[in-house]
Specification:
It contains four helices and 14 strands. It is α+β, with helices and mostly antiparallel strands. The chain folds into two domains: 111 residues, Jelly Rolls (Sandwich), CATH 2.60.120.10; 103 residues, Thrombin, subunit H, CATH 2.40.10. Strands 9-10-11-14-13-12 form a six-stranded antiparallel beta barrel.
Length: 257
């Protein structure tokens, strides 16, 4: 007759095919596994990212944190077979008596190692997530730069502009420095009293010729005004609100990569 019920708990061997999930992060479990054949990959999911924590092989143990930490927490990581694998499964209660027989100093060292391992895991996850976020920011930044290179073309086009619905003779001289199907930047001279010829929200009609000789005539609204190195110039950043004639076709051709 077995005096200790824990000693009656059998040691079980389980086989897994390549790709099989052995432990799922977040699930409840108290068993400890020893790899007899094959290899497994230990991963953690954080912020939608699967982070590789380690790859284990024959003789390695996993699932021990719950036992060493004396907790009933859910599994902190997922374990998946990366080749056909055989494991030996131990119930944590089989080890409890042996663990309690350990000298206090050994248990103390074990607890310290576990605490360091937990901190290291958290640090790895934080660094990985930080790296992911930096990559996403860099990717967005590069994508934005690519879009700007594609959609905005630097030009140096002399043009005439006038307030919307104003007569043609009221036109002023300007110079378009970049242009796209959606907007443009135009350098203008300040008036005699250093007045900006227009404010944010004003609409203008703009006429000019593209480098390929095609005429453009469009309506644009000022969205921002910037200073330049010259005290008598300003840059009007404008969004195109209307195109007349063949302007849309002309711009589409001009902006082909």
């Amino acid at each position: 007759m077995v005096n200790n019920p824990a000693e009656a708990l059998p040691i079980v061997r389980l086989s897994y095919k390549k790709g099989d999930l052995i432990i799922k992060q977040g699930d409840y479990g108290i068993s400890i596994y020893k790899i007899l054949e094959g290899k497994v990959r230990v991963t953690k999911e954080s912020e939608g990212l699967e982070i590789l924590m380690s790859t284990l092989g024959v003789g390695d143990i996993f699932g021990e944190w719950t036992f060493l930490n004396r907790s009933t927490e859910n599994r902190s990581a997922s374990v998946r077979a990366i080749e056909d694998t055989v494991v030996e499964v131990w119930h944590m209660h089989r080890l409890s008596n042996e663990y309690e027989k350990m000298p206090p100093i050994i248990k103390y060292i074990s607890d310290q190692i576990l605490s360091r391992a937990i901190r290291m895991d958290k640090h790895i996850i934080q660094l990985t997530n930080q790296k992911k976020r930096l990559k996403e920011v860099e990717k967005k930044s590069n994508a934005a730069k690519d879009r700007r290179r594609y959609y905005r073309k630097k030009v140096n086009l002399n043009c005439k502009y006038r307030p919307l619905n104003a007569p043609d003779e009221s036109g002023l001289e300007g110079r378009i420095k970049n242009i796209s199907l959606n907007g443009l930047a135009m350098i203008v001279n300040l008036g005699k009293n250093y007045d900006i010829p227009g404010t944010v929200g004003d609409f203008f009609t703009i006429n000019g010729l593209l480098p390929n000789g095609l005429p453009i005539e469009l309506e644009a609204k000022i969205v921002s005004v910037r200073k330049t190195a010259s005290s008598i110039e300003r840059v009007l950043h404008m969004v195109i609100t209307e195109m007349w004639g063949n302007t849309r076709k002309a711009l589409g051709f001009f902006l082909l990569p």
